[in-house]
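Hi R.,

Here's the chain you asked about this morning:
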Amino acid sequence: MKIAISGKGGVGKTTFAAFLIKALADDGKRVLAIDADPDANLAQALGVKNSEEIVPISKMKELIEERTGAKVGAMGQFFKLNPKVDDLPESLSVEIDGVKVMVMGSVKTGGAGCVCPESVLLKHLVRHIVLARDEAVILDMEAGLEHLGRGTAMSVDRLVVVVEPGRRSIETAHQIRKLAGDLGIKKLSFVGNKIRSDRDSDFLVKQMPDFHFLGFIPFKTDIIEADLDGRPPYEKDKKTLKVVKEMVKELEGN
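And the predicted structure, written out as tokens:
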């Protein structure tokens, strides 16, 4: 099962990813968790100690130069478009409670895209993880899905978009669905998060009538407290973990 998770910043995307990873791990699956969001905090959400000290792969200058044969930051170079990456999930991941965690980082550019050594290495690594790895893979993406090339995106089993009751979040969800269509992703599901009452879930369903919702997660102060304590959200919020485990059953069924 290869699942990419996206959504507008602040909707609780990484928190949902942490619950999903825990649900899969509790089900006995080997899980590889990929933080592909520039605002990387998935490792922290999973309880990795000193997670702020993890160097994103996009910042590993020596590794990028070794694998691509190009100088980072230099212009007009030739470099390998298929660098060796199959050893990186083992060598560059940290493990917690049986879950491997990798932090990708992002490539900062001034234009619309980047055909550069850093970008090529990251995209090839994601492609290898999605196409060749045999464990469950959860990718915590940014809204732009920048690490997914077309071929990789089409091989993702499901794109799950987290949305909260709010017009900007809903607008982002529409944009992500369009981008997913451009990339060839056919299986999309949506999760309503931070639901305070039936009114919130009804609002989402009314504003997104042709969107498939896996379910709705209630707003919980337990999640905020877990974040303040630097602990995974599922340690304090068992009810939401149970809700997400039901979502996993539906994903497996589909």
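The chain has one domain: 2-56+85-253.

Let me know if you need anything else.
M.
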